[in-house]
Amino acid sequence: MSLSTTQRIPLRSEQKFRPVEFSALAFLRASALVSIVTTLAIVVVLVYESIPFFRHVSPWEFLLGTQWTPLLEPRAFGVLPLVVGTLHVVIGAGLIALPLGLLTGIFLSEYAGPRTRALLKPLVEVLAGIPTVVYGFFALTFVTPILQRFFPSIGLFNSLSASIVVGIMILPFVASLCEDTLRAVPRSLRDGAYALGATKAEVTLKVVVPGALSGVLASFILALSRAIGETMAVTLAAGSTPKLTANVLESIQTMTAYIVQVSLGDTPRGTIEYQSIFAVGLLLFLVTLALNIASNRILKRFREHYE
Fold this sequence. Notes:
Elements: H1 19-56, H2 59-64, E1 68-69, E2 76-77, H3 80-111, H4 114-125, H5 132-150, H6 159-183, H7 187-195, H8 200-211, H9 213-228, H10 232-238, H11 255-262, H12 272-302
Helix pairs in contact: 1-12, 3-6, 3-9, 5-6, 5-10, 6-9, 6-10, 7-8, 9-12, 11-12
């Protein structure tokens, strides 16, 4: 009897039918299809409802106009005040959340012990589970009164208060993603740097952070995308005054806050005021899409491959 036998690997068509695997694969495909169909449906609705708006308002007037009064006479449809108001919140929140989130991720990844990490990371991430409307009331009842002590001229609704609470909201998002991507850097790189005499800080800043740069930058962009789409906290904290201003102590209005204002049910369907929310929504979708594309390009550009 021969000690070595040759077995023929069955072809895919000859493999035994496994109902569980087939069902799991079908479910995964259906889930992916639902995501694609939902995204396409959103795009179709936004474009379809925006076409009548742009028949009355030229795209140049919409994008470059400096007055936004679609609900008052004389009507003006320049979206720049809403874009600037959104930038107020996004830039302010980014200045708070991005450095603090990165530093928190560095601490959890490189300095905290297992017990400390197990305690602090859930505490940081629980901030992401707080309803956004709670952040809005937190801004009105706690953040703004504190700001009024330092800036007596600040109003109840202001851009600075909205930026602070949105920064707190996206902080756990940045911290968690940064911590995960920093911990993914191979241990061998750290050990090699220590073998050359590097200190803990030098290893962290010159080896670990550059090694995880793609993930860190991607977390920054995704967090800013989250800040752009924030609605309730900004609506309650920043007010509803579309104003082209650089003063963060004044009331402003963001694109999402305007959509909420018009969507309350007081605006008749089919009017140009109603159609304007879809034009603003389309612009918001395009901005968010551009940020996501930039995030993917950054991941490909700065990604490090380790053996």
